[in-house]
Automatic annotation (TrEMBL):
Belongs to the TMEM134/TMEM230 family. It is found in: Cytoplasmic vesicle, Autophagosome; Cytoplasmic vesicle, Secretory vesicle, Synaptic vesicle; Early endosome; Golgi apparatus, trans-Golgi network. It comes from Gossypium lobatum. This is Transmembrane protein 230. Its main location: cytoplasm.
């Protein structure tokens, strides 16, 4: 019987867990940073590939550098933009509190 009570959720438990849901307003600075990282990362990857293919700067190293830098910017930008989008749409398990503060 102890296990049944330990893992049961009552109405009181649901009422106690609401403070994080009340303050679920979008963090505009953090979302702006995530979108900027996504945009600049995408541009870096595209320009890096273009530079590597056309040997801009004399060799392919400059293009590879920009592509790697773009991918480093793209990964967190895509991740946090996705979280913000799903939290805005109201998908279960996604909240604006999952985005770290700047």
């Amino acid at each position: 019987m102890y296990v049944e009570h330990a893992f049961s959720i009552s109405d009181e438990d649901i009422m106690m867990d609401t403070p994080h849901a009340i303050n679920n307003r979008p963090p505009y600075k953090e979302i702006g940073l995530a979108v900027a990282l996504l945009v600049f990362g995408t541009l870096g990857i595209i320009l890096g590939i273009f530079m590597a293919v056309n040997k801009v700067g004399g060799d392919r190293a400059h293009g590879l550098f920009f592509a790697i830098l773009g991918s480093i910017l793209f990964i967190p930008g895509f991740y946090y933009t996705r979280i913000a989008y799903y939290a805005f749409k109201g998908y279960k398990g996604f909240s604006f509190s999952n985005i770290p503060p700047v």
